[in-house]
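Human: Can I borrow your eye for a moment on a structure tokenisation matter? Separate attempts, laid side by side, tell us more than any discussion would. Could you pick a protein and write out its sequence and tokenised fold? No explanation is needed for now; the record alone will do.

Assistant:
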Amino acid sequence: MQNDALNRAAARAFLLEDRAVLEISGPDSRDFLQNIVTNDMRKALADRALYSALLTPQGKFLADFFVVLAGEDRFLLDCRADLGEAIAASLRRYVLRADVEIGGLSPDLAVAALLDPHEMLAPGAMIEAFDGLLFADPRHAGLGGRLIAAKIGLPERLAAAAYAPGTAKDYLQRRLELGIGEGGVDLLVNDDYPIEGGLIELGGLDLKKGCFVGQEVASRMKRKSGVRKKLCPLRCDGPVLAAGAPVYLGDVPVGEVRSAMPGRALALIRFDRLGAIGGPALRDLALTVADRTASLDPPDWLDLPTAEPTA
């Protein structure tokens, strides 16, 4: 598909400077990743990207990323730049005798989010564009497309295709409106579980693929309905809430803000502390954050935990 076929009225491009690209290559690279990451690497094809994650052996979250097949036995991981070296170090610990090379963060590649090419791409679908690979964000159609491309001249190539530059705040607003967390910010490293971040619903955690690092704990939580906490959007008027601000129901702490923008936040909520309340009634709960009233605003895609107290 030619670049001009992607031109969109009022389309925006967001250069994600907090993202980086890690390369995994070698004859054993697919099988190597299959045994470690949370998604099924057999689905990573020349025309399909994946959303996936890396866990600790105890099932805690380490990092999430997008996996792109960029050539024979060559995969690119679109990850947070501040987690890239930790991802590489974690993967290298599992190499053993596998014929695989874990590269460093590429200085030549950049990551961008594009709104709105998603109407022309199926979820996860991928095409060549802008001297790189463009794929529909596998998590949610509302996040548009993601692009891994040559860094030099990328803003000019996007501008030539009628993409107006968007700001980081604009992209954060879109993400929070959809209720989608970001690993390392909303889902904390070595602290939270992937199920708490909605990775099953977002297509990043496949419990049917077979063994992977942390799989036993993730499967047990899902099987035994052991999910008490989940990321959930909040509505709250006034100034932007601070990350880490506690959320209360009366005098009971029921969560913690992770990301925020004017009028909206994403918080990790203890649904087991909300009492036997579920469904639409959740939106009517009067929560407080920083002495202000807030309300839950769960998206339709989110599979909410039971609100009944756990044993």
The longest strand covers residues 61-71.
